[in-house]
């Protein structure tokens, strides 16, 4: 069974975290099954058993209270779910990577896929881009400089092909390449190539004379796949032996299917069936459009189905994306972005702190110099969150000084916890003008605790802004 995380045999220190695009091979390695059917349940059965190789396959996780996961054998409360995938009959654009795809197409030649930079500038930028110690700001500056120079070159220095202006189309599934925007004299030679077609249909003459090329996902996939490996550093994409991200991974050919725990089925007591999650319904729509494209239909119908496939996949990612056709029943659907972002999303709604005791939340800027295992809070919150520290010989003088500072100063202490003979634990206020220090902070009274204010370097059980602390 593939696993997302394998505990190491020896303790190790995490030096850094690197992010990269998920390739088709990565999706297949992390998945347990390939979804082949858009139906959810087996037909002709009263118990509504989930269909094998469907979107609710038991190997994706337990979906009901009385079921066990077919992969790990746990019930629905303990099983975290398992991922699946299905392949598309044709590549499609990812709505979240559209502008990245357009920028790469503006940077490379639309014939030979080489980066549009002369040899002298290419050698200079390769030296800068190959530096492994580049931070994000310098990488962004280099990327903008390479894009600005290459987008101004209209004749490829390698194959001498014309490259015009590349813009995003008005619709989702295509990018427009205006080939002869800066070479109007070459339009007549381009029109002569379609002379026979124009003679049969004269209405195509003004369309051909515009010199517009529609770059659909299949064409973009071919261009990105032909980008040589030595040009990948110029695109500021990881290119070393361990971390390699190729531009073709920006185009979708394999869709991950979420576990059943993310899109559970709810039993309907009114209709006697189940209400499926929005994600499952959108997966069904995508699979239905993909099945229609695979059928023997006309070219016009295929283009319409391809547009619908792009729209349904974009709705799966972001249901509030502009330009999407309306849903038939006008019901608001929640895509993946809506489940993560916003006040009620996974991050702000489930992972950050709430209005409860011993938690703190404030609007502050993050400190880039902090370690990944540290949490930064202001002094005002630190005076509200106390940290119990046991009295010992090594920290006796330090705790005495905190108690003398009292609860009104920082760093200070709020109270001292102590026990008398056979009695329950008591608390005495850490006031600087009292005899608490003389009576209770003695070396022989090692069972006492001082509730000091939170200070830098204190080790807490878990992060103060984490959900398990609530």
TrEMBL record:
One of its GO terms (cellular component) is DNA-directed RNA polymerase complex. SMART domains: RPOLA_N. Residues 248-469 form the RNA polymerase N-terminal domain. One of its GO terms (molecular function) is DNA binding. DNA-dependent RNA polymerase catalyzes the transcription of DNA into RNA using the four ribonucleoside triphosphates as substrates. This is DNA-directed RNA polymerase subunit. Gene3D superfamilies: 2.40.40.20, RNA polymerase ii (3.30.1490.180), RNA polymerase II, clamp domain (4.10.860.120). Keywords: DNA-directed RNA polymerase, Metal-binding, Nucleotidyltransferase, Nucleus, Transcription, Transferase, Zinc. It comes from Schistosoma mansoni (Blood fluke). It catalyses: RNA(n) + a ribonucleoside 5'-triphosphate = RNA(n+1) + diphosphate.
